[in-house]
Write a structure and sequence with these properties.
By secondary structure, the protein is largely without helices or strands. The protein has one helix at about 10-20; strands at about 1-5, 30-35, 225-235, 235-245. It has 1 helix and 4 strands, in the order E-H-E-E-E. The protein is extended and about 75 Å long.
């Protein structure tokens, strides 16, 4: 048996070979295949695993230091202009009624039992998104967005949602000793570099929405009717935002 190694994605290369008929017998645990010729550099998909099996794309075997090697999808430069340039898409569609969730993707990095992370960089991160304008020139006619979340339906929808419609949900089920703080949001102060800009506000609300937000309602809330608060940390100092049970009038 010969191990296929193609751009650090041995199993994907082996799957390509099987799909095109160049390999005829088996794929091993780490992308090994028998009875094949050299893998092609391009092909027409799809890649389909054996029935009842997961399609596994691994950068290498468990138990070895992969030296930073990853499974890379579309890490190339596009020189065309006819279409939007999208790194990858995942659009699973549910075709029959069921009592289970439909999930677009899951990411779950794990720190195994008894394993420690040390040093200033010893951090575990669930997902990292880095919207990067490289170099110093090339204007952007619209926005720069780090993350865009949308809740959408087709026009005139009539579905009934018994629960909530939520753009971002956070959950904590965390046991241990934390010497810092446990918070759902942490916003770093803007870093200084040549021609850098600072945050202008904590958030931006577009337009007005009656009963929800307004920059200048007809009747302001009575500031003496405080009913609750939100605790925040500003520069590591505890501060409170007052809440009111009396609504302003738009």
């Amino acid at each position: 048996m010969r191990k296929i190694e193609k751009y650090g994605m041995p199993l994907l290369a082996a799957a390509m070979v099987l799909l095109l008929g160049a390999a005829t017998t088996s794929i091993g645990q780490y992308g090994q295949a028998s009875g094949y010729t050299a893998p092609p550099t391009s092909f027409t998909g799809p890649i389909t695993p054996i029935a009842g099996q997961n399609l596994q794309l691994n950068s290498g075997p468990t138990g070895t230091d992969q030296a930073g090697e990853t499974v890379r999808l579309n890490s190339i430069t596009n020189t065309g202009t006819a279409n939007s340039w999208i790194g990858f898409q995942s659009k699973p569609g549910q075709g029959t009624t069921m009592a289970n969730p439909v999930i677009g993707f899951e990411v779950s990095p794990r720190l195994n039992d008894g394993i420690a992370l040390t040093g200033a960089s010893g951090t575990i991160i669930g997902g990292h998104i880095d919207t990067y304008l490289r170099g110093t020139t090339g204007n952007v006619a619209s926005d720069v967005r780090g993350l865009q979340l949308e809740l959408v339906t087709d026009d005139a929808g009539t579905r009934v949602v018994t629960g909530d419609v939520v753009g971002l949900r956070m959950r904590a089920a965390f046991s241990g000793t934390v010497t810092g703080h446990v918070v759902p949001f942490r916003i770093e102060f803007a870093e200084n570099q040549t021609n850098s800009v600072d945050w202008e506000a904590l958030m931006k609300l577009t337009g007005t929405q009656g009963g929800v937000w307004n920059d200048d309602p007809a009747t302001e809330v009575d500031a003496t009717t405080v009913k609750g608060y939100l605790k925040v940390l500003v520069n590591d100092q505890v501060r409170y935002i007052a809440l009111y049970d009396q609504a302003p009038v738009d």
